[in-house]
């Protein structure tokens, strides 16, 4: 018996052929329908749209102290995230910061120091260098300034990002680093004032430091089209 005879007489063959025809006709139509939908876009990571990003930062102490740094030298302080204890358990660690505080201890002696032509004490140059994993950040500081090393996109906090999936936005904000060893290098270059008959003594700088891990708690909210129109009208 031929295949055509089976189609005419055998019920199982008829059902199989009908099923094949259904899928052959239905699938192209389905994919055309999905591709024609402009109201919603999708990616592998989920629905694509505009997301409002809000977040709150918290800081967790892992080291503090004071270090004298001679002129032209760099002193390195090493600390570990373990020092924060269980205060960082479950936290999204996105960076580390070191705050440096110092007062220039330049000493001037001699009768020439009181002359109008004399220069008073000049602030020294102090800089910090933070390292973690294979990343580092250096910055010159004034007393009370911080050096910050971060591994997330802080620029999108408090903004609305467009044409992205929720997973893509999360990838920009999730820390994935921070656990383990951190190091802070403090460098000093002495600057002296004075003048004729005004002797200056300045060998370096006493620098106090506070090192903290930075955690971020963030919220994503998909912005609907009508909300965006209201915001643009305001």
Oligomer: single chain
| SSE topology string | HHEEEEEEEEEHEEEH
Question: Uncertain regions: pLDDT < 50 for 5+ in a row?
Answer: 30-40
What is the β-strand count?
12
Q: Under the CATH scheme, which class of the largest domain?
A: Mainly Beta
Radius of gyration: 33 Å
How many helices? 4
CATH topology of the largest domain: Jelly Rolls
Instruction: Quote the beta fraction.
Output: over 45%
Description:
The protein has 234 residues and is an alpha+beta fold. It has two domains: 37 residues; 178 residues, Jelly Rolls (Sandwich). 21% of the residues lie in helices and 45% in strands. Strands 1, 2, 4, 8, 9 and 12 form a six-stranded antiparallel sheet that branches. It has a four-stranded antiparallel sheet with strand order 3-10-6-7, with no helix packed on it. About 5% of the residues have low confidence.
